[in-house]
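Priority: low. Protein: MDIS1-interacting receptor like kinase 2. Input follows.
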Amino acid sequence: MAKPSLLLHFFIFFFFFMILPCLSCPECQKQALLQFKSSTLSIYSSLHALDSWEFSSSCCLWDGVICSTSPPNSTSRAVIALHLSDLFIGSLLENLELFPSSILAPLFFVLDISSSSIYGQIPVLGFGNLSKLVYLDMRWNRFNGSIPPQLFHLPNLRGVLPEEIGNLTKLQQLSLGSDEFSNAIPSSISHLKELEKLDLGDNVLSMEIPTDIGNLSNISTLILGNNNLTGGIPASMRKLSELNTLKLENNLLNADRRNSIMIVPRCILVTLSLRSCALRGEVPDWISTQKRLNFLDLSENDLQGTFPQWLAEMEVAYIILPDNRLIGTVESYVDFSSNQLSGEVPTAFSQYTEILALGGNKFSGGLPSNLTKLSNLKRLELQDNYISGEFPNFLSQIFTLQVFNLQNNFLEGLIPETISNLSNLQILDLSNNNLTGKIPLGFVHLMGMIEAPNLPSSYTSISTIYILYSEDIRSNIVLNDLIVNWNKSKQGLSSHDLDMYFLLDLSSNQLSGEIPDSLGTLKALKLLNISHNKLSGKIPASLGDLENLESLDLSHNQLSGSIPPTLTKLQQLTTFDVSNNQLTGQIPIGGQMNTMLDPNYYANNSGLCGAQIQVTCPEEQSPPSKPQEHDNKEPWFSWGGVGIGYPVGFVLQIVIIFLTGYFSPSQPSNNRLCCSHPH
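Result:
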């Protein structure tokens, strides 16, 4: 058994140390490396570190060059790494860009040019071509200028913040957000005493926040959100007296109440985001000292207790508290959805309020008329509450509304025709209430649903909710998704993309009468759901004009007649349901209707037929033979006449011959009728 093992080891040795090194890199790569050497030596003729780079030898044996293992049936090995540390190569701008981007640069996985006394600016094109780069070491050089943004868009680069970053003691701003940096935040970062802004958000940083981060005495903006940071919020943060923006949201922190209270007793905050930071207990009362605060996000934590009155009295522009366990009544702010707040719908809001999100609570009673004072309101969300009474006419006075969500409440009565005054409305959800009467004809005036706006438009989109604040603030505001019924399930629409959606949902009410033709004018609609009502009459052919429609649900009504062929024009349609009606006739063929093959879409319509449900329509069956239709002229030929005339004519001919004496005995024999003649 020893011999096979010895042979195996010998083969491995022979392959890796004898055969494999003999395989060189492709000729084009060798030429690129030699060109790099030549250009370098033209500047530094005494450089000996590249002496092994000779044309006659395998480039995979050159100093600092690393090649891949040879793939099967290959005679070459690609260059995947260059280790050029301790190499005095001069200006990188003059040399690195000599690598042809189509030959060598895209192959590098590793590039080490540390400790090389390189000076000048970092080249944009040189590093922008290193598309497969995984590791880059540029330490201990003499670079100046800025870091090219292309360097941070290399898709495979795995960045690690080095401890040496603490040597940049004169640094005032460090923004490395969204750059895929990993590992821990180096503790040396606390040495940057002149740093005013530190943005490490949207990376994959882990471990704890450095305990000495409070030594950044000049810091005004600290952004560490959207990472994988663990541990607590360091108590040293209370020393950050210049801090006005703190964002720690969406990490894996387990901050206790002591830390959360003590972090900022000396500073004056403008923005505070602690979303999903595992905060527990009551809303931290130190927030009441922040008189300049205009943005507060404490959502997705485990805050409990009664909603504090002092927070209601603060003049904070944006307060976001959904997904906690707060109770009590509310007198003023913006997004308190998904709590357990009760009482009447609050109205003591600033007239400049643009978003009022109170869904998923226990508000009851009717809709208050004071809502009309919110003259800038664009988004009103009151879904999933206990709101009752009739749908009030005064709501049509909030002309700025773009999103109006009242689903899952106890509203009753008619939908007023005055709803047509809400000309900016893009999303209207009144589903799951007890509304009665007809669908208003005034929907034809909902201009926000007639044509999708080309931004900037005559009316603002939902993305302008931050118009009064700086770009840095408004680009990082996170609001809850808008939950709607989409394709038979509840889905969330991103709050920052609501200007892309146009929805009308009146399902699960007690609406009656016919579907108005005017709905066909709402050409921007992506979803139309009027299912689970008592609608009757025919499906309007005008619905085929809803050119952007993706989902159409007319099920569970009392609709009759046929499905209009115009629906084949709906090229965006992905969901179509007319089940549980009284429809008849053939299901239209063509366009997206050919893809609506789910038999459940048509169930419980006994008169429907068509290829989609594999039911043959009567007109498609082979019809019985029918006599040909003719004009009043008599035909000149008839097979029936042939059948009768032939025997009659034959008999008459015999009679004529007999009467004329053809068979008379006195005739000569050669005049007799014969069948053959003798030869």
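The chain has three domains: 22-89+100-157, 172-326, 333-453+480-574. Residues 154 and 349 are 47 Å apart (CA to CA).
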